[in-house]
UniProtKB/TrEMBL annotation:
Gene3D superfamilies: Glutaredoxin, NADH-quinone oxidoreductase subunit E. Belongs to the complex I 24 kDa subunit family. One of its GO terms (molecular function) is oxidoreductase activity. Binds 1 [2Fe-2S] cluster. Its cofactor is [2Fe-2S] cluster. InterPro entries: NADP_DH_HndA-like, NuoE-like, NuoE_N, Thioredoxin-like_sf. [2Fe-2S] cluster binds at C82, C87, C123, C127. The lineage of its organism: Bacteria, Pseudomonadati, Pseudomonadota, Alphaproteobacteria, Rhodospirillales. It holds the Pfam family 2Fe-2S_thioredx. This is Formate dehydrogenase subunit gamma.
């Protein structure tokens, strides 16, 4: 185990110890770990499973089920494009293709300069303003290709 992995394990164990008394602590712990590191670091799931007395499969199943948990750090800016039905009906697929082409990445990938991560999301609650996106936690409605190009320009992509 590398020194960095050992350090992460100690920090993850401290988060688990602090939050283990919560009812249903797994999701809050995963969120806290991701907040701490920007992702779920290697070895974290094993540490969490030991601390919570859960199988690694259970912890991995939860972490892999939710799209917000990532194994690698996100870029400086995170752009999420809604892929739900209402947004699809209003052109979200073309919008996503435009963003992927412009950034030269696929879904859930980060640009080579680590500036932008592009992620799919399934409903931002702006169905009446479709297609919708989220830029660094801020929800944006009625996003056209031109508007997405301006957003990408603003984040330095």
């Amino acid at each position: 185990m590398s020194t960095k992995t050992e350090e992460h394990s100690v920090r993850v164990a401290a988060i688990c110890d602090r939050m283990a008394a919560l009812e249903g602590p797994l999701l809050p712990i995963l969120h806290e770990v991701q907040e701490e590191f920007g992702h779920i670091p290697e070895g974290a799931l094993q540490t969490i499973s030991k601390k919570l007395n859960l199988s690694r499969a259970e912890v991995h199943g939860v972490a892999s089920f939710y799209h917000d948990f990532r194994e690698e750090k996100a870029g400086k800016h995170v752009i999420k494009i809604c892929r739900a039905e209402a947004c699809q009906a209003m052109g979200a697929d073309d919008l996503g293709d435009h963003a992927k082409s412009r950034l030269k990445v696929d879904w859930s990938q980060t640009t080579s300069d680590h500036k932008v991560t592009l992620e799919p999301v399934f409903c931002l609650g702006l169905c009446a303003c479709a297609p919708a996106a989220m830029v660094d936690g801020k929800v944006v409605g009625r996003v056209s290709k031109d508007r997405m190009s301006r957003i990408l320009d603003e984040v330095g992509a």
